[in-house]
Design goal:
CATH class of the largest domain: Alpha Beta
Number of domains: 2
Distance between the termini: 42 Å
CATH topology of the largest domain: Rossmann fold
Number of strands: 16
Structural class: alpha+beta
CATH architecture of the largest domain: 3-Layer(aba) Sandwich
Number of helices: 8
Shape: elongated
Length: about 325
């Protein structure tokens, strides 16, 4: 069971594992995507169909019809990776070897929907993949095994997820093998050590320039490649004297810089330099150099320096970027 692109690496490993027979795949229903809102299948469904594996895409996996459909497959084990729906007891008790979830954190740290993002935002030095025997709670089941890796200073959610998917695929096959032979040891989680990583909300994507530079830089990496952080350029008066709204600017990569001593700290969000990419003041007296951005309407990112050269009429030294939603309260 899986829906996110990261699930594809795990499904590929299962399909090619000699000790495994994939009898079916459960994924989320086809959704509208793209500017034209065309209904297209998700990446997991596309991969399954490519390998002639039966695919089920129920709106509600716990409905009587879906449970009956799953039961017909007679699975020995159900592997869950970023599926997006909670399984009830009828499904959890169905396979003899249980339902195993691969969660991309070292549980009980970062239970929830966005563990990779929160690990980066928190400045964690290490993370990993936990194989867990599922129960009725959210990421609360017994730990079967864990694989760990470092979080590098330049890691984004995209790069770290790729590393974790490879690490977790090997872990998954090893756990399945041990469950088959009855050699696995289950370790209950310590609920007192649990932290939570809820779904990223839209408000989190708007940069709050009053926050510390290091915190903003981590958030930019955590939300790269999606949903991505963004800010808004100042409003502009056009040739007709009309005020145009500020351009949305996605920020894909930035670096923290120290400002020289000065009598008065600049207002957070103030553009201090444009050479080599915009340098923006933050709330702790530091600054962020925008290294890679994507202006609204552009199909792909550009360097901060290229943006400075091409958008001189939209952003100048002394301008102030949108302060974030906290400034409106």
């Amino acid at each position: 069971m899986g829906s996110d692109p990261i699930s594809c690496t795990f499904l590929t490993a299962l399909i090619h594992a000699p000790e495994c027979e994939v009898v079916g795949v459960v994924s989320q229903p086809d959704r509208e995507r793209g500017r034209r809102l065309r209904v297209v299948p998700g990446p997991v469904k596309e991969l399954a169909l490519m390998h002639c594996v039966p695919v089920f895409t129920p709106e509600k996996v716990n409905s009587p019809e879906s449970v009956e459909e799953l039961a017909r497959l007679k699975p020995d084990i159900i592997i869950v990776m970023a599926y997006g729906q909670i399984l009830r007891s009828e499904i959890l008790g169905m396979p003899p070897l249980g339902c195993v979830n691969l969660h991309v954190s070292i549980l009980p740290r970062w239970r929830g929907a966005s563990p990779v993002q929160y690990a980066i935002m928190a400045g964690d030095k290490t993370t990993g993949v936990t194989a867990m025997m599922m129960d009725k709670g959210m990421d609360t089941g017994d730990i079967l095994d864990v694989a760990c890796c470092d979080i590098l200073p330049e890691d984004t959610t995209g790069s770290l997820s790729l590393q974790l998917s490879k690490l977790g695929s090997d872990l998954m096959i090893d756990v399945i093998r041990k469950l088959q032979y009855g050699t696995i040891k289950r370790l209950p989680q310590n609920n007192n050590e649990a932290t939570y990583a809820p779904k990223i909300q839209k408000e989190c994507c708007v940069i709050e320039w009053s926050h510390p530079a290091v915190e903003i830089e981590r958030t930019i990496r955590a939300l790269n490649p999606r949903p991505s952080c963004h800010t808004f350029l100042p409003e502009k008066t056009n040739a007709y004297g009309e005020l145009e709204p500020g351009l949305l600017l996605k920020i894909m990569r930035a670096s923290v810089e120290t400002l020289p001593p000065r009598a008065k700290l600049p207002l957070p969000g103030t553009v201090l330099m444009m050479k080599r990419g915009p340098l923006i003041a933050t709330g702790d007296g530091m600054a962020l150099r925008l290294q890679e951005v994507m202006p609204e309407g552009k199909p792909k990112p550009m360097s901060g320096e290229a943006f400075s050269n091409g958008y001189q009429n939209r952003l100048k030294i002394g301008d102030t970027l949108f302060q974030g939603f906290s400034s409106l309260s």
